[in-house]
């Protein structure tokens, strides 16, 4: 039941039609039932895993709140061990088994770990991180455990954020569940725009760029021009796809009376690696910072240790995305960028008299934006590649002159820009107006813009019905 399907549209309209007739307690129970149905529509077997996670984390959260001293810490480590063990078994067992068996084969050991052909439960990466942050916040005294099991279950399974985020902190969502307010007119305006804007980004931009990116990454070898075109296509595809999903999730939640925080903030206008991670998948970046980087010591250590903390955080963040070496490489690449930028900012930039870009957009920041976008593009090549062999082949191709005439290259880039430039122009307008949600003051302007979006979705959108990229994680 994907967001860009008629099945979800009918499901969501039914939910919106029922909610006004129910009080807070009954509406929460109804939303929990709807979320269970939404999740079960993918594969009813997945319910067993998420039901165990829900019950286990609710009980251990209560135990952590009641325990003291060493027992409190033991409950936390027990909870984290089980959560990560569950994620590791379903998501990473086959990866480790394949790599271990490959290492043992030259030694004459034919069989190490058996192949189990495990089906990855949908959204396990996201709800595992929700569970871990929930119990750690209780341990730190920053959150009281949910008093009702159904409230905690709804926090974990609320269908807008269940499958691919954003990662919503319990301290932010549980109070809204306990005292849910009815959506205001402003919520309806913002919610409708976010849903339509998210669908436009997904159906018109991401799904039309997908074949161009897929064409490149289906090859084992390619020329420099093909690599550049395919990687640019994927860069805007994944941004439109994932930020589009988040916009729909935030809009749907808004129409039901819930508010989710911003998850993307124009990441391709980042001027540095650290700036990029304050703009891209913000909920994950903040989760890694608060529950991994800072507990490792953060930037309170010696310089070598700070760099190690950055590298470990990004390696784990990359591996979280998928059980493949290219994700580890992608995480390590961004970790290296963060370490190098930190060294530059501390030791080189002050000597050159280079100031830090702050505040509103300035034209003087354009060189830094273009340089960072180039670094980001190569990162997406690592992320999307199907193997390390393909990474090596495409990297070599980038050092060879363009493999077909410049005019053809520009023509193809212009075709791709036809899909992503309208999106970028609208979001540039949003920056100029200092808005994170585009809502015109006039109802007539709102209506006209909605008509344009609906027309584009119906008649310019790809007909392939592509699944959202982050559903795979």
TrEMBL record:
Entry keyword Cell inner membrane: no
InterPro entries: Ac/AlaTfrase_AlgI/DltB, AlgI, MB_O-acyltransferase, MBOAT_fam
Family the UniProt entry places it in: Belongs to the membrane-bound acyltransferase family.
Main location: membrane
Record field: transmembrane: 30-54, 75-95, 115-137, 319-340, 360-381, 444-462
Protein name (record): MBOAT family O-acyltransferase
Keywords on record: Acyltransferase, Cell membrane, Membrane, Transferase, Transmembrane, Transmembrane helix
Subcellular location: Cell membrane
Topology in the lipid bilayer: Multi-pass membrane protein
Species this protein is from: Prosthecobacter fluviatilis
């Amino acid at each position: 039941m994907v967001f860009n399907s008629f099945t979800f549209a009918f499901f969501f309209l039914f939910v919106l039609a029922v909610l006004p007739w129910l009080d807070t307690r009954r509406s929460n129970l109804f939303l929990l039932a709807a979320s269970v149905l939404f999740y079960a529509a993918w594969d009813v077997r997945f319910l067993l895993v998420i039901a165990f996670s829900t019950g286990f984390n609710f009980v251990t959260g209560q135990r952590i709140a009641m325990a003291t001293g060493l027992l409190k810490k033991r409950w936390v480590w027990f909870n984290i061990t089980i959560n990560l063990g569950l994620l590791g078994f379903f998501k990473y067992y086959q990866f480790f088994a394949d790599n271990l068996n490959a290492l043992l084969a030259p030694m004459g050991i034919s069989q190490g770990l058996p192949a189990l052909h495990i089906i990855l439960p949908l959204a396990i990466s996201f709800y595992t991180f929700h569970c871990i942050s929930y119990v750690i916040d209780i341990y730190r005294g920053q959150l009281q455990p949910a008093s009702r099991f159904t409230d905690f279950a709804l926090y974990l399974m609320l269908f807008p954020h269940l499958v691919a985020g954003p990662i919503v902190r319990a301290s932010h969502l549980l109070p809204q569940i306990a005292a849910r307010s009815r959506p205001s007119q402003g919520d309806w305006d913002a919610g409708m725009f976010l849903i339509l804007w998210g669908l436009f980004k997904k159906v018109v931009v991401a799904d039309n760029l997908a074949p161009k990116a897929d064409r490149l990454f289906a090859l084992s070898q390619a020329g420099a021009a093909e690599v550049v075109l395919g990687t640019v296509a994927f860069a805007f595809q994944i941004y439109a796809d994932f930020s589009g999903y988040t916009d729909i999730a935030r809009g749907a939640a808004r129409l039901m009376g819930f508010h989710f925080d911003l998850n993307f903030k124009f990441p391709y206008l980042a001027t540095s690696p650290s700036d990029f991670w304050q703009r891209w998948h913000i909920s994950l970046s903040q989760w890694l910072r608060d529950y991994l980087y800072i507990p490792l010591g953060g930037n309170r250590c010696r310089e070598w240790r700070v760099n190690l903390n950055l590298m470990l955080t990004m390696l784990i963040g990359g591996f979280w995305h998928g059980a493949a070496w290219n994700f580890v490489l992608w995480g390590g690449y961004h970790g290296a960028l963060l370490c190098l930028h930190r060294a530059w900012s501390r030791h080189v930039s002050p000597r050159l008299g280079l100031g830090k870009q702050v505040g509103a957009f300035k034209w003087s920041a354009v060189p830094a934006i273009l340089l960072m976008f180039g670094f980001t593009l190569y990162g997406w090549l690592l992320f999307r590649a199907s193997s390390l062999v393909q990474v090596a082949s495409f990297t070599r191709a980038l050092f060879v002159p363009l493999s077909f005439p410049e005019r053809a290259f520009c023509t193809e880039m212009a075709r791709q820009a036809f899909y992503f430039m309208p999106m970028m122009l609208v979001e540039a307008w949003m920056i100029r107006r200092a808005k994170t949600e585009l809502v015109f003051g006039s109802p007539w302007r709102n209506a006209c813009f909605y008509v344009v979006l609906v027309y584009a979705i119906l008649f310019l959108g790809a007909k392939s019905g592509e699944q959202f990229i982050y559903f795979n994680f």
